[in-house]
Amino acid sequence: MKKEFNFNKLIIAREYNKFTQNQLRSILAEKYAIKLSQGELSKIEKGERKSISEELLRAISEILNFPVNYFYLEGSIIDVKLSLFRKRQKLSKKLQAYILGTINVIADACKNLADDTRSMNIDVPFFSLDKYKNPNEIARTLRLYWNVPQGPIENLTNLLEDNGIIVNFIKVEDDKFDGYSYTDNDLHVIVVNAALSGDRLRYTLAHELGHTIMKNEYLPYKEAEDTANAFASEFLMPEPSIKSGLRNINYEKAYYLKSYWKVSMASLFRRAKDLGVINQNRYVALNCYMSQLGYRKTEPNPIMKEYPSLFKEIIQSYQEDDNYTFDEIAQKACLSKDVLLDISNYNLGRLTLISN
């Protein structure tokens, strides 16, 4: 049976490239002399056109750098819950579209590259907020479930990926975006802003892990964020291990505790307040002092950034086990080589791949 053109994939590829419909139409007219009205392109992206000409599809494929066969993949656009965007109210619609497009491309690639010989160790439980007292209890339960020792987590990214959660960096030139999590059955993806500092990266990962474990998108936005924040704080800084160390906390003590717990000084101050170790006045005074020093946005004693590798390990398995070239892997993923390099974070982290 002949496959049908999938308009959803056109939307995904266009948003991944940060193109508006008008920008795509302009390039089609300027480079390919193809005049497409706004109304016609809208109809195509709404699925009101079951097919498009080969000439138009080839041009779109070249402009967006997605192979023609990508537009014949099955599947709709992932129903990503915008309510779970951190600081979503300040993100432009174009940037939100790019992030959503990238999540969809990552999901498509994972589905196309996954097979029985490359199955991941997926062990991501669900802990309902209706069953447990609060997010703190869920965080403690998850640490026990994953056999995480007491004290700080040495490498949070590795912990997530060891349990089958794919972590990916997205190049977002806007500090209003921290991270986003997406789950579809056994596919768990957390995308984070590649520009995040080491401590902010870890907190964002823990926050998004909270969304993933609790599936709390049904809650009102503020409540969903508050529960994810509470989970993140307890998961990274469990009360039984950290509370006594936060007594008499000041700037100098937080500076050194930061290296041990691998969280920001601001997070340590907030944790001390939430655990009742310091009062509100002391908490405000510590934050004011940080502001006076100019450390509210960029703190001293930076934490080394963690880098993901799970997606790259899947690609590497094709190279080492099946002698695939990178071009052949990209073809299997139904992506161009450049797009696969980008979404797999090929140029980041410790794992080096052979791309020719």
Blueprint of the fold:
Elements: H1 7-16, H2 21-32, H3 38-45, H4 54-64, H5 93-113, H6 135-145, H7 156-162, E1 165-170, E2 179-184, E3 187-193, H8 198-214, H9 221-236, H10 239-242, H11 251-261, H12 265-274, H13 280-292, H14 310-322, H15 326-332, H16 337-343
Parallel strand pairs: 1-3
Antiparallel strand pairs: 2-3
Helix pairs in contact: 1-5, 2-4, 6-9, 8-9, 12-13
Keywords:
three-stranded mixed β-sheet; 356 residues; disordered C terminus; mainly alpha
Explain what you see.
By secondary structure, the chain is mainly alpha-helical. Helix content is 50%, strand content 5%. It has helices spanning 7-16, 21-32, 38-45, 54-64, 93-113, 135-145, 156-162, 198-214, 221-236, 239-242, 251-261, 265-274, 280-292, 310-322, 326-332, 337-343, and strands spanning 165-170, 179-184, 187-193. The chain has a three-stranded mixed sheet, with helices on both faces. Helix 1 crosses helix 5 (93-113), helix 6 packs across helix 9 and helix 12 runs antiparallel to helix 13. Residues 350-356 have low confidence and may be disordered.
**What shape does the CA trace take?**
elongated
| Rounded mean pLDDT score | 90
Specify the number of helices.
16
In percent terms, what proportion of residues is strand? 5-15%
Oligomer: single chain
- What is the strand tally? 3
Low-confidence stretches: 350-356
Fraction of residues in H or I helices: 40-55%
User: Ends: how far apart?
Assistant: 34 Å
Largest sheet: 3 strands, mixed
Strand line-up of the largest beta sheet: 1-3-2
Radius of gyration: 23 Å
Give the ordered list of helices and strands.
HHHHHHHEEEHHHHHHHHH
Q: Which class best fits the helix and strand makeup? A: mainly alpha
